[in-house]
Amino acid sequence: MLQHLVIRDLAVVSFADIAFSEGMTVITGETGAGKSILLDALNLALGERADSHWVRPGAEKAEIAATFDITTLSGAVLWLAELELTCDDTPQTCIIRRILYANGRSKAFINGRPATTQQLRLLGDYLVQIHGQHQHQLLLKTSEQLRLLDAFGQHDELLSKVKTAYKHWETLHQRLQKLKAQGTPEQSRLDLLQYQISELEALNLQPNELTALHAEHDQLANAQEYIQASESVLNLLEAGDQGNALQFISQAQLALRSLTDKYPTLANVNECLNNAHIQLEEAASEVNDFIAKLEINPERLNAVSMRLAQIHDMARKHKIDPTLLETHTQKLKTEALNYADVEQAIKQLEQDLHIGAKHYQIVAKSLSQARFEASEKLSVEVSQIIAELGMKGGTFTVALNPHVDETLHLTGNETALFCFSANPGHAPLPLNKVASGGELSRISLALELVAAKFLATPCLVFDEVDVGISGKTGSIVGKALYDLSQSAQVLCVTHLPQVAAMGDHHIQVTKTPLKDSTQSNITLLTEKQRIEEIARMLGGLDVSAQARANAKQLLQQKLEVSPT
Fold first, then answer.
1. The pTM is what?
2. Which of 235, 233, 257 has its CA nearest to residue 247?
3. Which residue among 166, 178, 200, 359 is least enclosed by CB atoms within 10 Å?
4. What is the CATH T-level fold of the domain 1-132+464-524, as seen in this structure?
5. Count of CB atoms within 10 A of residue 252's CB?
């Protein structure tokens, strides 16, 4: 429930502080007084798009603060808790602030914490339901007619299932179309892969072959040089005609024998020489083995060179390092395997798509049946209300038309079409073809009165929905709005005295000319002031005694229908 609304420097309002109560609050005022400013402020607080023209001339900023009691609104309480926007001091209260700056910027706060306008709009869905004049034209759109029918029938769960089934089907459909569209390039890619794999397999590259070939090629290409170098080493170790390392070690051992008998401490030196002799012999043996393995073989060198060239040519062709050829081959085989499965993937997707479409039709048919039942009920209820609104004999019907194409649709298998006939015996036709402005206004009001009963919103706002209505019909509208206020808070901007008299609370908006501008004043009327305002609405600016008497009578009639 809306408890409080504070406005500063918004349009023609310099300051207003209005407390709201349960029941029905009516807002009246002369034409041009700005009686819709309260609803404009409320809309802005709830995230409506804003710009700098809302800021009162001469002011730096405009500010709106709206306070709501959310004690019974579990959805709003949960939403605030999930976003950590709950009011710390009073969790059952929600305070929304919106600041509009003259430079076009704006700020928003929920319970003192910064918020986005999108968050304001989402929160507003829990707090307020606004029925305004613009809905008359919106009502002519078939998409809006279907939305209203689903809201009336409370089809949220069914509609959610249909949308989920549709989105699943659509995802599969898009994947299948994409796969089919890429069919030709994928086949050509598969052909290329198979060719590349074939030539790589023909190369028959063995594990570690490249490393072994490089080593062998180095050995064969430099065999003569390596043999000469190795023979030089042998000469120094054991085969040199002018002395070699082994000879020198042996000579040193002979010279040492005559000394070790006298000097035993030199025995360790003799052992070192023995070890050196053994190691030199082993070194010479290994060099001999190395020379034995070396061969000068031009034919083998040519064969190894050709094999290396073959491998490197293949690597260049695939634009990779030769060491990566084995890995590259496996990668191509994996890709080819995936492409080879494309046909199977298409078959599987087609099967899944068929299953998805069948599931969609199951839930869509359930929604269609629910819509049919809701359309029957809505037709009856709206027809009854429009008869009470002065269109006796008028008939309102809801036609459900299947989609003409064979594809699936996000919102189900049909569209809704609101139809109307003003005279008995005439077939109902679409609203945009038969309803006059006044008739459309009353039909819209009838739908709004019906909608207000099933939309679980604690605050219902009606902005001049009684346009084109007067006299006895106005009394009926006022009574209908008053009945709604027994289960929800109702705010109503009206020009009808019959509607104004039904309010539990009455706010008057007046304008005061200033030197360079105009100012709107917002006043909560006393019972005496209400008589004067309703008399003005009945008789114009010159309020007569008869107008006052009629005003009192209207207020008395309201008391007679009020619960005791």
1. 0.62
2. 235
3. 178
4. Rossmann fold (3.40.50)
5. 14
